[in-house]
Design a protein that fits this description.
The complex is a heterodimer of chains A (196) and B (106). Chain A has 196 residues and is mainly alpha-helical. Chain A is 46% helix and 11% strand. Chain B is 8% helix and 32% strand. Classes of the chains: A mainly alpha (196), B mainly beta (106). Chain A binds chain B through residues 69, 86, 88, 103-104, 130-135, 146-159, and chain B through 4-5, 35-37, 39-40, 51-52, 54, 57, 72, 74, 79, 83, 86-89, 91-99.
Chain lengths: 196, 106
């Protein structure tokens, strides 16, 4: 799946990917077109999907209630297809700040947020986020007051998590699209908060 | 107790813990693919919710069907119980998915 550009020697994992892909195609398990389609799908999933969900929850209390109880159903009602996603949405409030990590690997709500950032998969983030979340959040520039409870969610099995951030002050009367435009990826992982 | 996600596998183990119940994570170190992180083994927490029942990942990793499906819970731990030198609020918590066969009544 090399992009066009200057020639670079293949890394170990790139070589493994090419070898595995060619074998699967040669043996008729997959076609080249299916592989390309899957990669294209992956690239087309961006955090804007999650941002649409958040913005709707900010303006529609009924939708928010549904989102917290049945994440996948709520996404589908917005026309966002999330096949097989067991989505748990956790809500930030003035008393609670949520953050997501996967200490064992890199489980991530790709259907809503796209491909995870490299830092999310790093050993540093994965090991420290459960151990000293306040220090890690401070490194992201987010200082959480002591009286606010921090809930770290370790995504170890079949669930995938998304944080529903708080709607910032000064956004009264904003359209849903404008609200969605301030919801960035990191605020749905819980390492940032949206700003008006 | 109603799980958050209803699944329909041919066989599944009934859920035996209720929301709010105190549970301890078994302290054991079997070989193979385990979805219970080392750092939480042996600690006591509270059942936050029943997620549903899912094939046992330890069996799936051996190319078996993982059935009967195992109840999967989200368990809430006080950070200060998990890390005695934790720096932060006494109220800070950690929530983790743990399969029933890794839990015992505390």
């Amino acid at each position: 799946m090399n992009d066009k550009g200057s020639y670079q020697p293949l890394t170990y994992f790139q070589l493994m990917e090419v070898s595995l892909r060619e074998l699967l195609v040669e043996k008729g398990v997959l076609t080249q077109a299916q592989v390309e389609e899957a990669v294209e799908d992956m690239r087309n999933r961006t955090p804007e999907r999650g941002a649409r969900v958040v913005a709707r929850a900010w303006v529609d209390a009924e939708f928010k209630k549904r989102l917290l109880a049945d994440g996948p159903g709520a996404c589908e009602s917005l026309g966002i297809d999330v096949p097989k996603l067991r989505l748990v949405v956790v809500e930030n409030t003035p008393q609670v700040h949520n953050a997501i990590v996967c200490t064992l690997c890199s489980c991530y709500p790709r259907m809503l947020l796209g491909i995870p950032p490299d830092w999310y998969k790093s050993r540093n983030y994965r090991s420290r986020m459960v151990r000293e979340p306040r220090a890690v959040l401070a490194e992201f520039g987010l200082s959480i007051p002591q009286e606010v409870q921090i809930r770290v969610h370790d995504s170890t099995a079949d669930m995938r998590y998304m944080v529903l951030p708080m709607r910032p002050a000064g956004t009264q009367g904003w359209s849903e699209e404008r609200l969605a435009s301030i919801v960035e990826r990191d605020s749905m992982i819980g390492v940032a908060v949206p700003k008006a | 107790m109603q799980p958050q996600f209803i699944t329909s596998y041919a066989t599944s183990v009934p859920a035996k813990f209720a929301v709010g119940e105190r549970v301890r994570v078994r302290k054991t170190a079997p070989l193979g693919h385990i979805r219970t992180p080392f750092y939480i083994r042996g600690h006591t927490g509270t059942i936050e919710r029943l997620c549903g029942s899912f094939p046992n990942p330890e069996e799936l990793a051996q190319m078996r069907d993982g059935l009967p499906a195992q109840p999967l819970y989200r368990v809430r731990f006080r950070q200060k119980d998990v890390w005695p030198d934790y720096r932060g609020s006494d109220d800070d918590v950690l929530e983790i998915e743990i399969f029933q066969h890794w839990l015992e009544k505390a």
